[in-house]
Design a protein that fits this description.
By secondary structure, the chain is of the alpha+beta class. Helices cover about 45% and strands about 15% of the residues. It has one domain. Strands 1-2 form a two-stranded antiparallel sheet.
């Protein structure tokens, strides 16, 4: 499934309004970029959602995904790999 800018940016905007991500402008490059980082609340929500989905998977007989098992190679859609990498290396902003 393809998630383009018309899907991702409205979703990020909603997540920011709810306090799950925080954005800031990175002006260090030639082209300014808006950078999003998980907040502590967003990380808590992500952990809760992941635990809930894993519980559902166990209930239906599928072991789910281990938290440490998400690597660039395990993400099927190449477009999501940079997002995962950024989330792994960013510290939540409060």
């Amino acid at each position: 499934m393809y998630f383009g800018p018309s899907t991702i940016y409205p979703l990020l905007s909603q997540l920011e309004k709810k306090g799950h991500v925080k954005s800031e402008w990175n002006m260090a490059s030639e082209r300014p970029r808006k950078v999003y980082k998980l907040t502590a609340e967003g990380q808590s929500l992500l952990n809760f959602t992941e635990d809930s989905l894993n519980l559902i998977c166990r209930k239906i007989g599928n072991p789910g995904v281990l938290k440490d098992a998400l690597t660039e190679d395990s993400i099927p859609h190449a477009a999501l790999r940079p997002l995962l990498k950024n989330l792994e290396h960013s510290k939540p902003m409060i």
